[in-house]
Specification:
Layout (H helix, E strand, L loop, with lengths): L3 H29 L4 H31 L8 H29 L8 H34 L6 H8 L3 H30 L3 H25 L2 H29 L11
Helix pairs in contact: 1-4, 1-6, 2-3, 2-4, 3-4, 3-6, 3-7, 4-5, 4-6, 6-7, 6-8, 7-8
Length: 263
């Protein structure tokens, strides 16, 4: 029997990430008061969808190639494998973000549209990774709990094996990702308006490469619990700094003093 904790965890894993994006967007819209924010958010949403779809195919192709070479299974080869995966991920994510930021500012460049692009990107990330993942198990879980389930035993076992801890960890990951992307797209819009396309590319590329590389490499170097703690401390710190950058901009319309070189 599926537990109440699992049902609650699946509901929160679906609702919380989406609500966070809605709250962030409403707050940004209230503070910025410029036109085109919903459209910019839609560009961000679409930017994540196409890059995630391409990444799934690219990951399968690159992964299949590396599986054919045993060198990638041990020693330095593991590090190289994680770097290649992170590189593919960073390039595609950067492509999606650059596409969205460019189109949102194509007619009338405004730095203010940057956070909206990031919010749309984060919403799409939440739906792709969590809403779609937990939507079907939640329906099945309710049917198992209150009667009427007529599916296979295999599907029932999959739902029962879902970890409540992972559900809450996924919520944390969504918050972290969303805040980092909001600050990233803000800085990207700033660089675009100031005619710095190289910086516009490097900011998302470097940040997303490091996020993916640490996420895949740390578990291979240390126990899972230790690697998870270290990763989330590092990413949580980056997310808090990103939140500071965004809130400071919403209040003053200026990039905070640690980023004067980007103005």
């Amino acid at each position: 029997m599926v537990s109440v904790g699992q049902l609650v965890g699946m509901i929160l894993a679906i609702v919380v990430p989406v609500m966070i994006q809605i709250v962030l967007f409403l707050h940004a819209k209230k503070e910025l008061k410029v036109k085109g924010l919903p459209v910019a958010a839609c560009y961000g949403l679409l930017g994540y969808l196409w890059e995630a779809w391409i990444y799934v195919m690219a990951y399968g192709w690159v992964g299949a190639m590396m599986m054919q070479n045993t060198w990638f299974d041990s020693g330095f080869g593991i590090v190289v494998k994680q770097m290649i995966i992170a590189l593919v991920y960073a390039l595609l994510t950067t492509g999606g973000l650059c596409w969205a930021v460019y189109l949102s500012n194509m007619r009338e460049p405004l730095v203010e549209r940057g956070p909206a692009v990031g919010i749309g990107f984060g919403l799409s990330y939440a739906v792709w990774n969590y809403v779609l993942v937990y939507g079907a198990p939640l329906i099945i879980g309710f049917r198992m709990r209150f009667g009427g389930y007529e599916g296979t035993q295999e599907m029932q076992d999959k739902v029962l094996s879902l970890s409540v801890e992972n559900m809450y960890l996924f919520i944390l990951d969504t918050v972290i990702f969303s805040l980092i992307v909001m600050a990233t797209t803000l800085l990207m819009s700033n660089h675009q308006q100031n005619g710095r396309p190289l910086y516009m590319f490097l900011i998302p590329f470097v940040s997303q490469f490091m996020i993916k590389f640490l996420d895949t490499l740390l578990p291979t170097l240390m126990p899972e619990i230790v690697s998870s703690v270290i990763y989330h401390v590092l990413m949580g710190t980056a997310a808090l700094w990103s939140l500071w950058v965004v809130l400071n901009y919403l209040k003053t319309r200026k990039i905070n003093h640690l980023l004067k070189s980007t103005q």
